[in-house]
């Protein structure tokens, strides 16, 4: 079971030293406890949040490239290692197209389509990569948009954390994939205190969901759907506000045994 370095099974979070003027340590603890209280009391919101459409274009163009988060990030290389030569890839929540760059560099995908619900992100992706195929679409509606089993690999990287819950988008990604659905998390799912399903640690903008999910809850969901899965942890450092020891993890899901 995944536990961040320096944490324990019972309290799987590590507060880092505040840097870059981020919130002080006591505030981080308070926010985390508030998130847990909301989870325990059933006060977590469920409506979609589309703050991504309101963020400045220069931010959208650069934030997934800065501070080692670009095409060089180890979890992007992991993704490329799971795609076979000539396979088609649907990149769900593609943002400004860094996933496109990473796969292009690996020279693997015969057909790449990036889809994102943020219109400005898609416009930026198209400007930066005129040769790419970028479309507007929602992670919760890709089966209707593209059809079932329409791509060999469906990639969902750093997106589920920003949705009200993981189930619908996970279900859709699996439905659209022919061989693999790949989910990459920057907030690694883990067993959470009090058995809660998800906690918003409050380190991001208020208009965005930022959930750490329960790994047991994800596993129950996949087992219930009769799916096979494998976790890969420690796939590169995560930028996770004032949390320390956070690393990227990938969840590989298939209808066939892995
Ligand atoms: C943290 S960024 C990750 C971008 C990209 N996957 C990467 O790894 O570079 C999250 C992206 O998910 C997109 N997103 C959020 N909710 C979405 C939804 N319901 N459907 C599709 N995209 C969504 C946002 O617009 C944003 O571009």
Question: What is the structure about, briefly put?
Answer:
The protein is α/β, with parallel strands linked by helices and 258 residues long. It is 29% helix and 17% strand.
Write the layout of secondary structure elements.
Elements: H1 25-40, H2 57-62, H3 74-82, E1 88-92, H4 98-106, E2 111-116, H5 119-128, E3 134-136, H6 142-146, E4 151-157, H7 167-176, E5 177-185, E6 198-199, E7 212-213, H8 215-224, E8 228-232, E9 249-254
Parallel strand pairs: 1-2, 1-4, 2-3, 4-5
Antiparallel strand pairs: 5-9, 6-7, 8-9
- Kindly state the number of beta strands: 9
| Assigned CATH class | Alpha Beta
Radius of gyration: 18 Å
User: Outline, from the CA principal axes?
Assistant: globular
Task: Tell me the number of helical segments per DSSP (H or I, 4 or more residues long).
Answer: 8
Taken in chain order, the helices and strands follow as HHHEHEHEHEHEEEHEE
Hetero groups in this structure are: S-adenosylmethionine
The CATH topology annotation reads as: Rossmann fold
Please tell me the overall pLDDT: 93
- The name of the CATH superfamily reads Vaccinia Virus protein VP39
Straight-line N-to-C gap: 19 Å
CATH architecture title = 3-Layer(aba) Sandwich
Low-confidence stretches: none
Indicate how many domains the architecture comprises. 1
Oligomer: single chain
- Class based on secondary structure composition and strand pairing: alpha/beta
Helix content: 25-40%
> In percent terms, what proportion of residues is strand?
15-25%
Order of strands in the sheet with most strands: 3-2-1-4-5-9-8
The biggest beta sheet reads: 7 strands, mixed
């Amino acid at each position: 079971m995944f536990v961040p370095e320096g944490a324990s099974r019972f309290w799987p979070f590590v507060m880092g030293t505040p840097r870059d003027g981020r919130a002080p340590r006591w505030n981080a603890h308070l926010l985390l406890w508030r998130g847990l209280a909301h989870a325990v009391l059933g006060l977590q919101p469920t409506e979609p949040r589309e703050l991504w459409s309101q963020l400045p274009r220069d931010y959208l163009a650069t934030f997934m490239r800065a501070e080692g988060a670009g095409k060089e990030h180890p979890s992007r290389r992991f993704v490329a290692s799971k795609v076979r030569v000539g396979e088609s890839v649907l990149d769900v929540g593609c943002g400004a197209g860094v996933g496109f760059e990473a796969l292009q560099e690996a020279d693997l995908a015969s057909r790449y389509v990036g889809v994102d619900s943020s219109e400005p992100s898609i416009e930026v992706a198209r400007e930066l990569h005129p040769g790419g195929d970028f479309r507007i679409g929602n992670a919760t509606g890709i089966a209707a948009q593209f059809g079932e089993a329409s791509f060999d690999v469906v990639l969902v990287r750093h997106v589920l954390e920003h949705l009200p819950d993981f189930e619908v988008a996970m279900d859709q990604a699996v439905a659209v994939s022919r061989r693999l659905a790949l989910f990459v998390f920057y907030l690694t799912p883990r067993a959470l205190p009090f058995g809660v399903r998800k906690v918003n640690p409050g380190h991001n903008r208020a208009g965005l969901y930022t959930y750490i999910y329960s790994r047991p809850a994800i596993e129950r969901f996949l087992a219930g759907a009769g799916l096979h899965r494998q976790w890969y942890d420690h796939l590169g450092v995560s930028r996770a506000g004032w949390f320390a020891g956070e690393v990227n993890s990938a969840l590989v899901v298939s209808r066939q045994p892995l």
